[in-house]
Amino acid sequence: MDKATGLERSGIAGAAAALLFGWLRRGRPTPDPEGRNPGTRFETRDAPPWLFPLLGGLAAGLIGTVVVSLLLIFPQAARDENRALTTPMPEPRLQTDPAADWQRYKTESMNRLAGYGWADREHGIAHIPIDEATRRVAAHGIPDWPADARQEGRR
Q1: Which of 15, 27, 39, 101 is the most exposed place for a label (fewest CB within 10 A)?
Q2: Under DSSP, is residue 117 helix (H, G, I), strand (E, B) or coil?
């Protein structure tokens, strides 16, 4: 078995493999048996150590400059003001109980249709129950209605 390659070869093939393997490893340091690598050193192509604090300071300075500039340009933005609505929301309001609202509307409408009341008190206009109004129109007609229309309705 060949020590360099770890392969079992003999003769010319083994010698060629050993030479090739040795040539490929040429110039590379061998690792230390204690686990240290003597060829390891600081990578000079990396960023210099002072660059990161410098960039962090520049970023913090830029953020501070922007904040101060905005406070100088918009001074009223830093005040703590109540921006809640001071007037109630316009109608229609959301229904919390639609069934009860419908029942109340229906009852009020039926009471208005079946009862007496003022439509416009200042001008003397009243409303009467719908059944009474229907009887009066059937018995007497509509006073301002054209006569021809009354005749056509009876045919």
Answers
A1: 27
A2: strand
How confident is the model at residue 107, as a pLDDT? Answer: 95
Q: What is the C-alpha separation between 48 and 149, in angstroms, rounded? A: 104
Say how far apart CA 111 and CA 61 lie, in whole Å.
75
Give the number of other CB atoms < 10 A from CB of residue 113: 13
Q: In Å, how far from its chain's centre is CA 33? A: 61
Predicted structure pTM score: 0.30
Nearest to 141 by CA among 128, 155, 129, 151: 151
Left if phi > 0, otherwise alpha if psi is -120 to 50, otherwise beta: which for 109? Answer: alpha
Predicted pLDDT of residue 103? 96
Q: Give the separation between CA 152 and CA 22, rounded to whole angstroms.
A: 124
What pLDDT is attached to residue 26? 66
Integer Cα distance of 53 and 70 in angstroms: 26
Q: Compute mean pLDDT per 10 residues along the chain, 155 residues long, and list them.
A: 54 76 66 67 74 95 96 84 77 83 94 88 90 88 73 59
